[in-house]
Amino acid sequence: MKIKSPLEVYNYLPRTNCGECGYDTCMSFAAHILDRSAKVEDCKPLVEEAKKDPKIKEKLDELLELTAPEILEVAIGTGDSAIKIGGEEVLHRHELTFFNPTAFFYDVWDTLDDRAIDERCSRVVEYRKFYVGKFLTLDGIAVRCTSGDPKRFREVVKKVAGYGKPMVLVSLDADCMKAALEEVAETRPLIYAATEGNWKEFLELSLDYNVPVVLRAKDLDVLKSMAATFRQAGVKDIVLDPVTDPLGEGLKGTFERVIQLRRTAIAGEDKDVAYPIMVTPIAAWLIDGDEVTKSYWEAVIASMFIVKYADVMIFRSIDQHVVMPTITLRFNIYTDPRTPVQVEPGLRPINDPSPEDPVFITTNFALTYYTVESDLTSGGIKGWLLVLDTGGLGVEVSVAGGQFTASKVKELIEETKIAEKVNHKILVIPGLAARLQGAIEDETGWKVLVGPMDSGRIKGWLENNWPPQD
Amino acid sequence: MVGLATKKFTLDEFLEILKKYNVEELEGVTIEGDLEIELEGSAIDISAFSSLYALLSEFSNFLYHANMALGYMQRLSAMLGIPTPSIQPAAPQVPAAPEVPAAVEAVPELRIPEKLIEAKFEPYKAEYPASIEEVTIGATKADGGSRDYVVTLGGEKSLAFYTFDAEQKHLPAIAIDVFDRKPMLAKAVRMHYEDVLEDPAEWAKKCVKKFGADLVTLHLISTDPLLEDKPASEAVKVLEDVLQAVKCPIIVGGSGNKEKDPEVLEKAAEVAEGERIMLASATLDMDWERIANAAKKYGHVVLSWTQMDINNQKTLNRYLLKRVEMPRDSIVMDPTTAALGYGLDYAFTNMERIRISGLKGDTDLNFPISSGTTNAWGAREAWMIDSPIEGDTPWGPRELRGPIWEIVTGLTLSLAGVDLFMMMHPGAVAVLKEVFNTLGGRVSGGIADPGEWIFMEG
């Protein structure tokens, strides 16, 4: 976004402090536009006035342009499952935050038999990984035309569309692509790819069917030329693929091209390359070796470019040793660093506990809390969970750093009145807080048991340690 | 870092090789000139073309082996118990298959331009005013030690692997952890050290000779008052053994006990005099002054360790510089590593901020960075047999999840600027080395056609 201070935004607003946007003052609204927690269009008076007065319309458009993200935001798919890519503002997440997590598409191809296609699609659609209080899922399916047959491609694309996920359609052949688009254009797939060889046909397709398009070229002069040409011809939704070379100096070149594209777009203000970037970890499957080697290298390439600027990716492997690390890394990198990931401290009864049930304690770091809470809940364990305010730090770090202390545990026990809810005075502390055992006993007068290092093992631990023997 | 030169084949050699591999599909095809492929009968027959194309692809696939410098794949596969054949190096340029000419439209529609708009991509140039200090660990005979080689960290003038901005003299180094008593290890890690767990000197040898460690980190955890409480003077005998057993640069760690560590590290500094080891570590909540003074007195490097807080890192570094007067070439920082999924975002951003501050000229922060990447094994995804959470997709074999967890944790932090990785899984070490050599521009070659995935089946 070109504007850097709320005052600049404020000057475009009605300055009436009407509050219709949900903020008390126009200045407050301006500040929220700047950090992208509010949209210009939320200012109803401005939007309404612009409909009547061309001068105000001009002002509104100017403000929209000045507050547009540095990198174009492109939507793939429609309805609830639609995803947005791009829309980024900064090169380093601590400068603000990264906005739209890299979208993950998983590969099927039209020479697979129908059963295998269904099997892969189902795995993508059904994938779930619990993390920080919710289930992470996968974004979409990439359908490749390996048959060279427009009819078959169309048939398979139709079948895959039935799974309701956003799609990337992969074919360099305009006839095949056209056949597929006739079937599913209204689901707004991303089409892959226009190249130096086929760009005219693909330009026509993206205009005719109004779908986002990937431009593919290793030579960044050519890539920029294509982007400028498509833009001028009226294509709005462009994605750039600077070609993922999976190995050696080829991969080194890809690293350089991706970084140069994004850096030149943001720091160099080159609007002709300010588009989302596609990286294709699937190219790792071109290297030689067994499946483990290929899939490991696929995860490596993906990780590199989740950290460095890829907005959309195509994967081959749906195996956990590829999906789990990449989906977790994506979450970590795209977590907003401005808001600490923590939950309310206090007392949480788990599975309707009785006074005989154990009392556990953990920290208010969201990840720690949700991990412990879900382990207890899904393990069918009844108990009382004390959540200590460590300022959003995990157990190990807060014990070392002095945010998890005996005196704070004592305060929490008093505040939550836990002693009135149970008929014992026994506290189970995390294994990673073992060194506080004595101090907590001295401070609180409670008996302290050291639980396992990982809350996933609480169930087994309780079998041996609860109820306590003495 | 083995860089293999790319050998260009002539077409004749290329055909010879194809013949050698019994390529029958070549019948009826003549290849002339440099990049021209002609099919019999001159008209392009797609089916003939595609089989040739497939053939070329297969051929290039086969040949690409060549560029597996370091043979990391083989090592990884061996680690996981899957043998892969080793193949002679060679990396020819395989001619690209000619494109089928697109049907030319008689009269192109007006809205589709005839030609691409000509544009030149001008990459944005970034330059930083300062650079990261160079810190050398280890000393050879010439410098009064007995190491065979030394490892130099730091020296960056730009962000990690941005060699298009500035040369990166030193790629990140990898140290493998050794403990002076059996530690708690994940099964997938322990299986590689089962035979040496009782013998730190043998353990160190295995790390260097078999797993390619650049350095070894010896953790004297037996000194922990809560474990054996071994006296410092006795514990450092193991250090002497390790210094004898291996000739790589050495890092020595204590047990993490605030009271005991200064004494242990002081003793270690004394017995390793001349070897320029790194003492791990000085922290704000223990007697950092005593540890740093020991490092200074005996000519070692000190690791300045803080808990994910850039300001604390600055404070501790200042203390070391101003109060102890540590030389600037003798400080490495450990701003704390959290595992993938368990705070990696904090660790990454903290390190990235530290590195950028250093490059911008903050002389309290322009030191090389170290990461305890072994922490990745604390993540349950790395070691647990399956998800304890109802509704999760099954997690798959843990032998495959563990190493990649360590790899991705390390890879992410390498992009933030880490110079030294302390690791444990040999497969993870091998893969990260390959990554560093690749991004550092030390692996030549690539594959013939990176676009082939678009057409690949199976």
Would you mind describing this structure in some detail?
- The complex is a heterodimer of chains A (470) and B (458).
- Chain A is an alpha/beta fold and 470 residues long.
- Helix content of chain A is 41%, strand content 16%.
- Chain A folds into three domains: 6-67, 3-methyladenine DNA Glycosylase II, Chain A, domain 3 (Orthogonal Bundle); 73-333, TIM Barrel (Alpha-Beta Barrel), CATH 3.20.20; 346-465, 3-Layer(aba) Sandwich (Rossmann fold), CATH 3.40.50.11600.
- Chain A contains 17 helices and 17 strands.
- In chain A, the strands form four sheets. Chain A has an eight-stranded parallel sheet. In chain A, strands 13-15-14-16-17 form a five-stranded mixed sheet, sandwiched between helices. A two-stranded antiparallel sheet of chain A has the order 1-2.
- The model of chain A has no long low-confidence stretch (mean pLDDT 95).
- Chain B folds into two domains: 11-25 and 48-110, no CATH class; 135-453, Dihydropteroate synthase-like (TIM Barrel).
- Chain B has helices at residues 11-20, 46-64, 72-79, 187-190, 200-209, 232-245, 261-271, 288-298, 310-323, 344-360, 380-383, 398-416, 426-439; strands at 29-32, 36-39, 134-137, 151-154, 173-179, 215-219, 250-253, 278-282, 301-305, 331-334, 370-372, 420-423.
- In chain B, strands 10-9-8-7-6-5-12-11 form an eight-stranded parallel sheet. In chain B, strands 1-2 form a two-stranded antiparallel sheet. In chain B, strands 3-4 form a two-stranded antiparallel sheet.
- The two termini of chain B are 33 Å apart.
- Chains A and B meet through strand 4, helix 8, helix 9, helix 10 and helix 11 of A and helix 2, helix 3, helix 10, helix 12 and helix 13 of B.
